[in-house]
Amino acid sequence: MGRVENKIIIVTAAGAGIGRASSLMLSREGATVWAVDIDAGALDELKRQDERINTVELDVLQKAAFESLAEQLGAVDVLFNCAGYVATG
Questions:
Q1: pLDDT for position 84
Q2: 54, 78 in Cβ contact below 8 A?
Q3: 69, 72, 60: which is closest to 14 by C-alpha?
Q4: DSSP string, 11-51
Q5: What is the pTM assigned to this prediction?
């Protein structure tokens, strides 16, 4: 296993791109990954690729929802934030 073996890691925007690739890599390296995204379909596909990854449909802009997840998990070793914010209008 790797350097992140037995670490608990939350990855935001895990449904696509860097977040998805990072979730898969971190899981292969032995981490317990909590993959977070607003796209439930993308999370389902990620889960099909690696059943060890825990997925949570969640909007990181909703502070209470993210705090609830953090409370549920307790100690977290790494928060890998891949989520971005695009201002519209």
A1: 79
A2: no
A3: 60
A4: EESTTSHHHHHHHHHHHHTT-EEEEEES-HHHHHHHHHH-T
A5: 0.91
Query: Hey, what amino acid is at 14?
Result: A
Rounded to whole angstroms, what are the CA distances from 11 to 16, 88, 89? Answer: 11, 24, 28
Pairwise CA distance, residues 85 & 83, whole Å: 7
Tokens of 36: 């977070």
Burial of 41 (0-12, 13-18, 19+ CB in 10 A): exposed
Q: Is the pLDDT of residue 89 over 90?
A: no
Distances (CA, A) of 53 to 35, 61, 62, 88: 7, 22, 22, 32
Q: Domain spanning 8-80 has what CATH number?
A: 3.40.50.720
Over the stretch 7-51, which tens digit does the pLDDT of each residue have? 999 999 999 999 999 999 999 999 999 999 999 999 999 999 999
